[in-house]
Design a protein that fits this description.
Radius of gyration: 20 Å
Structural class: alpha+beta
Mean pLDDT: 84
Low-confidence stretches: 1-8, 27-35
Shape: globular
Number of helices: 5
Number of strands: 12
């Protein structure tokens, strides 16, 4: 918390006076720089019109619904998001967070067992105008460390602009993902990949956040926002 009318400099003076702590000359400046360089330009919003079909009666089409989700740019001019965002999609549209225009997308790969999907936008204007979209960088670490700081970026309900939620890694676990279970994947079925890594964070993961990237303190992606616990406070899961 900053004292009214004062900048971060008073925190430095207070720490050094009370605890005799020696801080690097640009400690606070470096933190502010990392926050400002968050690659939010690589995060996009999905608008999906979907209608579920019956595998036993494929001519039966259920009522259309409209949902939103989040995605991000990866290598190869592809967009990564959650499988549950674009499942049963009839129309997929993508919008950059600072522009109103929507672009048509097409699903090129979907994995219900891992709750991930890849989408491609063929319109060259999406990638180059007004600025070139750059892919995110994935973390070199196998898993995020406990108590390390993370930031979940996406377009949750409650607003139309991009949103950043900050928290820490609370738990590293292995589970069958929620979406996978809803598709009939269980630990003892033939189509099961087994228990997969999942990271619990205390940053808010709300509807609309699904498919968005979660960054570490160095702005590398450590996971994809996947689900939350509606009846619990500050419990979100990234994969």
């Amino acid at each position: 918390v900053e004292r009214a009318g004062h900048g971060p400099g008073w925190i430095r003076q207070w720490l050094m006076a009370v605890e005799d702590v020696e801080l690097p000359p640009n400690a606070f400046a470096r933190t502010e720089k990392l926050s400002s360089s968050l690659p939010s330009q690589s995060v996009v919003k999905f608008f999906v019109t979907k209608a579920a079909r019956s595998y036993l009666m494929p001519w039966v089409v259920h009522r259309e619904t409209n949902v939103t989700g989040t995605g991000f740019v990866i290598e190869g001019r592809l967009l990564m998001t959650n499988a549950h965002v674009i499942e049963d999609a009839m129309v997929v549209e993508v919008k950059k967070h600072d522009l109103p225009k929507k672009f048509r997308g097409r699903v090129v790969c979907i994995g219900h067992d891992v709750d991930l999907a890849l989408v491609r936008v063929d319109d060259e204007r999406f990638w180059c105008n007004p600025n070139v979209l750059l892919p995110v960088t994935f973390s070199a670490d196998t898993f995020a460390e406990l108590y390390s700081e993370v930031r979940a970026v996406g377009f949750p309900t409650g607003g139309s602009t991009i949103c950043v939620s900050k928290g820490v890694v609370s738990r590293v676990d292995a589970q069958i993902y929620v979406h996978s279970r809803s598709k009939g994947v269980a630990h003892d079925t033939l189509n099961s990949p087994g228990r997969l890594p999942i990271i619990q964070i205390d940053a808010a993961i709300n509807p609309g956040n699904s498919g968005g990237p979660t960054f570490d303190i160095t702005n590398n992606v450590i996971g994809v926002a996947s689900s939350g616990l509606p009846k619990a406070q500050n419990v979100g899961y990234i994969i």
